[in-house]
Request: fold
Amino acid sequence: MLLLTVASCLLLAPVLQGVWGFRTQFLFEAGLFLCGGGWLFRKSLAGGYPVFFSDRKNLPLLPAVFFALLSVLLSPVRALVAPEWWTFAAGAFALSLAASLDAVGRRQAELALRVSAWFIVLLGLYQALVMKSPNVSASLTNPNALALFTVMLLPAAAAWRDLPLAGALSALLLFTGSSAAVVALSAAAGLCLVESGRLSFRGRGPLLFSVIGSAVVFAVWRSDPSSLADRLDWWRAAFRMFADRPLLGAGAGSFAYLYPAYHVVRPGEAATVYAHSYYLEFLAENGALAAACWFWFVAVRFRSLSGFRRYSAAAALVHSCVDFGLSVPGNFLVFCCLLGGSDPAGNERPAHAPFVLTAAAAALGCFFSLCGTFSVQLRLEDLRTGAMSALSAGDFPSAERLISYAARLDPGNPLVPSLLGRMRMRRAFESKDGGKLLEAAADLERAVLLNPYDVGAWRGLETIYSSLGGGAALEGLNKRKAEALR
Reply:
């Protein structure tokens, strides 16, 4: 069961990223917690458990997950970011499971990753060569995310001596156009050569230094200056978010919702939902406590890695300095499995039943809690889809009825009154119904009360109050908006 769980994670996580949504996330992560928890329960009955669960160097992982959860629970947009914490928890659990594989199991799990890599390569090359797509992303939703997957897999392909896969990944990397990926691979290659003793100032050392240095210089030279300017703005916004909530942050995934409050968009600036620096984004979203524990844990695990996993992790960590690839669930889960797969084979100890049963109960408890969380989310998604279909068909009463039911189902979710308010506002302006316009204003006021960073809701209220003559209501609105969106 352990091998099946880890292999499924490596095989399916990158492939399913292209269709990742509430339903896919629920099925994938629920399966991970259920199977992994069941395996732990069986281990407790057999009287042994993997050393990972008692090794002191792994202790920071538990407080990292706890502080990240606390950050979500105290988030100003809690209802919006709750599902994001589950991905972090699933990655941490997958890491512990991957670390529990023996040598044979790790080799078999690598086969699943190899199959996944070929799927990504073939799909990406099809997009590039047949569909002539300008943004090649395979199933990873974005060229930057694909670039990170590629730099993680190239060291693996070299270790497997799979030259066709290495060549195809290299070609795919060119289509992504990622300068950060070139720098990341150069760093991983330099680390490999230094640790193997091949990179020194004698013999061929200077030549290798020149090749790696030239690759880095070329990558920096060909990078887009506007992309760097955008990143500086995004990093400043992330740092300001962190400064406002330094200890616990604003919750996993909150950057996308809070960003408008910390940055004024420049004309022509690229839109984003990521900070384009995994470290800054994690710090701003989860706070210093979770970040200190997580980064400490990653550093300790990295020191213990060997073989291609060490260089794959090095490339991913360097790439993540200036990009968001690890914020994408498919990449994050693969990274966690690679980070975990380094403990000695067959390293088990006699189990204290309460200890292993507690770990199993925690995993199974996550499964049931996940079911409860996503049952509401999936119902809301179905209602939203039905409402949008009714709205497209011009059936305002049905759309309004569905969203009103969603508001009763989850009264703390700010997306519901925001959508309901915009629907009623549209209908009110089309029918010139002042009563409906006031109902729309009440909905949008509730939306900004639940989520003061909702730019669309603020804009809708400005439109409504302006149409009603402005005055004190509009003046008060602008004052409240200025306080929220600084």
Notes: The two ends are 51 Å apart (CA to CA).
